[in-house]
Amino acid sequence: MYHYTAIQWLFFFYFYCFFGWVFESTYVSIKSRHFVNRGFMRGPFLPIYGSGAIMMLVVSMPFQDNLILTYLAGCVGATLLELVTGMTMEALFKVRYWDYSNQKFNYKGHICLSSTIAWGFLTIFMTQFLHKGVEKLVLSIPYNILTILTVVLSVYIVADFTLSFKAAMDLRDVLIGLDKARAEMEKIQKRLDVLIAVANDERETRKLEREERADEWMENLEERFSKVREHLTTNPGAFMDNVKDELAELRSKYLVEKEHRLQFDRLKDFYQRSLIKGNPGMYSRKFNEALEELKKAVNERKNK
């Protein structure tokens, strides 16, 4: 059984947060062939690893002399932690920081059988090998020094997490705003197509492609408004007065949504950009078009 004080438990949590960051940042950096500061936070800490490590220690406590039960406890505990964390983060931020949808026997992309199996083996490695060395190291630190280190780390990590949480919530608002602006532009474009087609006595209007980038949408809308101005210049009677009023209203709406989109697309916040760069596999079921556009904008800025 583990008999630790609250300070020691907290320091173990921070240690494994750091250990997880080193492991995952190294792995992703090697795959990407450039340094990637992995994770939700900007500092060198991944809370999911710290939470997972503490969970493994806790659930394995009653079964330390039984490897099979330790394995099963790790499978269940870590899988539940991953499921709850994934669902909570997606509900809050509208974004997934990991996705197992391409794996067999997955549940809504949050968990999958292969990761559950791996969690069990990792729990055995953790409790039987890794933690023994970490425990020896931590218990060798004088308690007063350990307390000071833990308090200092707590202040730093709470501040970092707070800023990262705010950035993630702001990024969620950016995604929602970009999606809303695009939807409004789609409505404006459809209505413009109808009005122009009527003025030209055309039967069909252009079909819209959802794959278009938002800047292409703006170009298309600018083109349509140019056509309207040409009609009014060459044939002032092409549109009835009520249609002219509607066109003016559509133009005003477009200018508002264009400004909204440009504001959202700037993404000036360092933490928001770092969230995207540090999580290249970030995915959003509802707002993925907007998210991919932001990813591209961040990468283009990085390459300049």
UniProtKB/TrEMBL annotation:
Keywords: Coiled coil, Membrane, Transmembrane, Transmembrane helix. The chain crosses the membrane at residues 6-23, 44-63, 69-93, 105-129, 141-163. This is ABC-transporter type IV. InterPro entries: CmpB_TMEM229 (IPR010540). Residues 171-198 form a coiled coil.
